[in-house]
Amino acid sequence: MSPSNHHNRRKHHILPPMLTRPSKCRTICDLPVELLDMIISYLESDDWGVWSCSLACRYLRSVSIDRYFSKSLVAWHLHNVDHLFSFLHANPRISAKIRNFTLGGATRDVGKGCSLLITTDDTIVLRLLPLLPHLESIELRTFAYGQPQQSVPPPSPQRDTPGPFHLRHLSFGSGYYGCPPRSSSVSGLFRILSLFTIDHLHGESRECHLDLGTPLDQSYLYRPLQLKYPLLRGYGSANSKHALMILNSFTESIEPGHLERVEIDCRAVSEVSAIRKLLARNGNSLKSLKVDG
């Protein structure tokens, strides 16, 4: 090889691959550490999934984050919510798009099932709401609900009570299949519900493993529940006591005059009496009732 050719080869540089189209927007390869952490946490037990995610990030370099996100955001298997809040704070354009939000805590395999690792409460929900200004629907999955630490003080000119925030749909209790019981506070759950006016509530009443020794304390609620259409589902009769506690808590906490439609799964004789009490107290405005045995 002549010196001149050798010199020319040394000066020849391989150019990096060009994007399919130039863009000043951040791309999927530039996802914040917080979001990447959530993705990897969700896929941590799935080597093929992690590989697929990495491959997608390489081939979708020109897809901007703002264009990639739709109106729905699903954050499952969270070990803590700090990464989620950091991501939403840093990306207000994405946060403003989100209408439907699914939030789920981490679980751990324990042989025949899984155990819940994360407890949630109203403080987490209150931190979330200002970040999602157009939120219409929330689904809460695989959480234990913490016992409130203090009662809600009575309204006063010096202190604003948060809410009520309007939701078209709120769901709780799903995703627990195969999880051994971990006691949740019914007051903690209903304190979250009392932040909202809810058009349609979907509850898996038998999947919420509640602390049966601590009934609802209404002093923890921000206000009576303003609820139009509760759909309370349950499968089997193993957790009838938990379903009964949910029914009694709704009877005590719903503000009369709001219920328009009710659908309930009834799996035990004791629940018939609870449904009767619910309707006697809150059934004046009812337009439709469905009870499945």
Report on this structure.
Helix content is about 30%, strand content about 20%. The chain has about 290 residues and is an alpha/beta fold. It has a domain at about 100-290. The strands form three sheets. The chain has an eight-stranded parallel β-sheet with strand order 1-2-6-8-9-10-11-12. A two-stranded antiparallel ribbon has the order 3-4. α9 (about 240-255) packs parallel to α10. The longest helix is centred in the last third of the chain and has 14 residues, at about 240-255. The protein is globular and about 60 Å long. The model is unreliable at about 10-25 (pLDDT under 50). InterPro entries: F-box-like_dom_sf, F-box_dom. It holds the Pfam family F-box-like. This is F-box domain-containing protein.
Highlighted features:
two-stranded antiparallel ribbon, 293 residues, alpha/beta
